[in-house]
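Let's study a protein:

___
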Amino acid sequence: MQWTFDQAENVACFTLRQIVEDGAPVLLVVHDLDDHGWQFLTGASVSVDDAMIVSMREVVDLDSTLLEVGHILPGCQATRQSIGTEWQIQEPEE
């Protein structure tokens, strides 16, 4: 699949140990408004101790369906119920 994110594959992003080490699914994607960074999360409550910084490519290699939301604009987020279900895009509140 074609790279869809506005950041290069080797750019750092935030994710969680549960995703990288334990195989938890990414169910929440946040495209930060302030720095255009990306966060790939489980949607559950997390601790700072669970945070990891990895390359965008590393997260996409774990789940290529993330490319489906690479187009969302800064300030938006995407959620889904499970891998394989449709992403729901939320625009920023004004």
